[in-house]
Amino acid sequence: MAKILVPTAGAHDWKQFLADPEKQWKRGYSAMAAALSWEAAKGFPKEIGELLGENAELLLAIPEHKVALPGGRRESQCDVFALARVQEETISVAVEAKVNEPFGPTVKEWMTDASDGKKERMRFICDLLGLAMPPENALRYQLLHRTAAAVIEAGRFKTDRAAMIVQSFSQSHQWLDDFQAFSTRFGQRLEPGQALTVELPTGLPLTIGWAVGSAEFL
After folding, report:
1. How far apart are CA 186 and CA 207, in angstroms?
2. Where are the domains of the chain?
3. Taking CA 160 as the corner, what is the angle to CA 182 and CA 119, rounded to the nearest 5 degrees?
C-alpha cells in the first residue's frame, strides 16, 4: 500500500480500495455502510468512540488498510484502520465492518492441511495475543488476524493501546455468537455495545468490542 495518502471527498472514494468493487460496493453491504457511517461522523462514529473512551478523538482513518503478517503474502485488510487519542493516550484501532457477512472460516477450517506458512502465522498470532497454540477450533480466523493487525500497528506507530472493534450494522446482531466465542477467550462474553480491555503478554493494553452501527446507513 502506498504511504502517501490523500483526503476523501466523500464515501464514493472508498470504493476504489475494495478487492471486488463491483460486488462489494452496494447498499446493505458492510463496505458502503462503513464508508457512509465514517464520512457522516466527521470523526469517530458515535458507537465506536463510546467503546474507546470518553471524548475519543479521531486523528486519522484509512479505508481498507493492509497489514502484513508472517507466513504468507496475504495481508490482514482492515475495513478501517484508525489512530485515536483518548486523553493522554494514543490508540491503534482496527475496525471490522459487518452487516450480514459471516466472519469466514473457523480456525479448524483454515488450518486443514495447513502449510508451514500457515502454521507460522497462527503461532505468531497466538503468541502476540497470548492465546494457546493451536487456538480453539471453532474460533473465527478473521477475528484473530484482525486483532493481530491492530497490535502490529500499535507497535509500528508506537501507540499506548490497541483496539479491534467490530462495527456491525446488523440490527439483529448477526454473527454475534462468533464474536462472543472470541471475547470469551479474553475473559468476558461481550454483549452489543460493550468493550473489554486486557493486557497482552507484551504489556500492551488491548480493547475488543462490538459496536452497533446505525440502520440509516444500510
Report:
1. 10
2. 16-217
3. 40
DSSP calls for 131-152: --SSPPTTSBHHHHHHHHHHHH
Nearest to 97 by CA among 2, 189, 32: 32
The secondary structure of residue 75, as a DSSP letter, is P
Q: What are phi and psi of 195, to 5 degrees?
A: -135, 160
What's the rounded mean pLDDT across residues 170-184? 97
Pair 67, 78: CB distance under 8 Å: yes
Q: How far apart are CA 142 and CA 181, in angstroms?
A: 13
pLDDT above 80 for 1: no
pLDDT tens-digit series, residues 114-124:
999 999 999 99
* Mean pLDDT, the chain, whole residue set: 96
d(CA 211, CA 217): 14
* Residue 3 pLDDT: 83
HSE at residue 174, side-chain half, CA atoms within 13 A, is 13
Cβ–Cβ < 8 Å for 133, 126: yes
